[in-house]
Amino acid sequence: MRVAVLVFPGSNCDHDCYHAVKHVLGCETDFVWHQERVLSGYDLVIVPGGFSYGDYLRAGSIARFSPVMEAVTDHAKKGGYLLGICNGFQILTEAGLLPGALAQNVSMKFICKNTPLRVETENSYLTDGFKKGDVINVPVAHMDGRYIADDKTLDTLENDDCVLFRYCDGSGAVTAEANPNGSARNIAGILNAAKNVAGMMPHPERVCEESLGGVDGLLLFKAALNAISSGKPAL
Amino acid sequence: MKASITVTLRNGILDPQGSAVMNALNSMDAACVKNVRIGKLIEIEIDESDPAVAKETLAKMCDRLLANPVMENYHIEFQTG
Question: Contact B65/A108, CB-based, under 8 Å?
């Protein structure tokens, strides 16, 4: 599996993603600067977290006009796998590659903590091999992580099995108390209808080694590696 | 010409800043305040003299970049004088 990790001015989780995928998972991985116009030969493109363009105007709103984003859109439209993490998720919603938007946390505070997530579907390249209802622990670190969309969009996401993760408590119960940022229906991550594009606010790249507090994130990258290497279709 | 664009969260989307300010106003004896929405003001100067054309151009800018239609509304006003 060949992986591209995009780098925008202000990205700050790019090196974490690169390390997790290249050194821990062992995949051929390249950094791709946002001014590039070509993205070819990559099985998975990761849009990492950070504060692209300083989050000016709205998180992700300016990055989505970077030259590389046309190539990212082409990659996704051809069925290529795409993963947006945190600011990457915000960029993908701004680019219209994923539905909905990310608004400021209800608490108006930057939240940085481990969050249990309930796996909502096993039918995705990131959760292949998981069971629906599994609980993983992955940290969030964001100011604008409140997932919002109109009811029709939320219903469609649920009916089409496009909700990836929900914030839950340690036992897997999806409760208001377990919702760190006020996200609609506790949604922490979603897929597009074709299921080749995923976005999530929590940071799997930060939990890929026991010495760094856990390996639940590595399980997701391993699932992606298995699903993509085996040529399993996204849908 | 100069335009002022106001961008606010759409009705129905919780505005935590607005709620906090409303609570503060209510606690300083302004119980008459029923709702507060906080948004952004963008002032733009464009090289266009026809207001209709300018408005259309600005609306396109709002739809593509200045506002996110999923969660925000925008209002365009031209500054006079």
Answer: no
